[in-house]
Specification:
Layout (H helix, E strand, L loop, with lengths): L3 H6 L11 H9 L8 E5 L5 H10 L4 E6 L13 E4 L5 H11 L2 E6 L5 H11 L3 E10 L19 H13 L16 E7 L2 E6 L37 H9 L5 H18 L2
Parallel strand pairs: 1-2, 1-4, 2-3, 4-5
Antiparallel strand pairs: 5-7, 6-7
Length: 271
């Protein structure tokens, strides 16, 4: 199987990528090798990654670059189409997609600010082919306070992406929420160290119709998840054990208790 890192090292132009990205990309992209696809990369710099993608995907792939610095226009001499523009400007994206149409893979390795990443994602969702993906690189900037990023904040890209998760779950009928354009486009979201992948599916993303069961094996049993505990346990904390017996697991007081327990785990992951 082709290894992207080999093409990265042999690229005739300078480029930088975090070392963990190569294995992620090998797993994501192998199915596109040799296929007739269009890949767009934001933030091409000296053009090293454009050459890497061309060698990796093969002659059938169309590789397009977007860059804020106009000097990158010279990369068109290497056979790449280069667009100069501001990725945080919705008008730029609308003009861009009007010219090139739908694409298969979008890689955002641009300026990594919240607005740049979010605008790139939201202005591109409707322009990705079925089975394609949007990849946002260097999402660790959502947690960086220095270098001008001023994160973490409620407006960071990662915080924004968690709002997308709610839209995916609207497809479940138990939520009783209407599907919106996001629910109908995003199939799934993958999180890696410093990379977020938005998988696009323009087909069959409708409400989940049924809760399936194998009726021949149907068996009735009591659901214990919200039942009170029936007796005082041998827990060291007698009063806590008594509380669990007396208070309904659906009550507001029990919710406070659950939240307290969850906060202990949150402290662990935030160390």
């Amino acid at each position: 199987m082709k290894n992207i890192k080999n093409f990265f090292k042999s690229s005739p132009k300078y480029s930088i990528k975090w070392s963990n990205y190569f294995d992620i990309y090998n797993n994501l992209f192998y199915k596109f090798i040799g296929k007739k696809i269009t890949l767009v990369e934001v933030g091409v710099g000296n053009g090293g990654s454009l050459h890497m993608w061309k060698k990796y995907f093969g002659i059938n792939a169309k590789i397009i670059g977007i860059e804020l610095n106009p000097t990158s226009k010279k990369l068109e001499k290497d056979g790449f189409k280069i667009f100069i523009g501001d990725q945080s400007n919705p008008i730029f994206w609308r003009k861009f997609y009007k010219k090139i149409g739908k694409i298969d893979i979008l890689i955002d390795d641009g300026g990594h600010t919240n607005l740049q990443q979010i605008t790139t994602l939201m202005e591109s969702i409707n322009h990705i082919n079925h089975g394609g993906m949007i990849i946002i690189e260097d999402t660790h900037t959502s947690f960086m306070r220095d270098k001008g990023f001023k994160n973490p904040s409620k407006y960071s890209f990662i915080n924004f992406s968690t709002s997308l998760i709610e839209n995916l779950h609207r497809r479940n009928p138990m939520l009783k929420k209407e599907l919106n354009s996001i629910s109908k486009k995003i199939h799934s979201i993958e999180y890696y160290d410093s990379i977020t992948v938005i998988n696009i599916a323009n087909k069959n993303l409708n409400k989940t119709n049924n809760l399936e069961n194998n009726t021949k094996l149907r068996n009735f049993f009591d659901d214990y998840r919200f039942k009170k505990e029936m007796k005082v346990s041998k827990d060291k904390n007698f009063f806590l054990s008594l509380f669990k017996i007396k208070i309904s697991k659906r009550s507001y007081l029990y919710r406070i208790y659950e939240n307290y327990k969850i906060k202990r785990y949150l402290k662990i992951i935030k160390k």
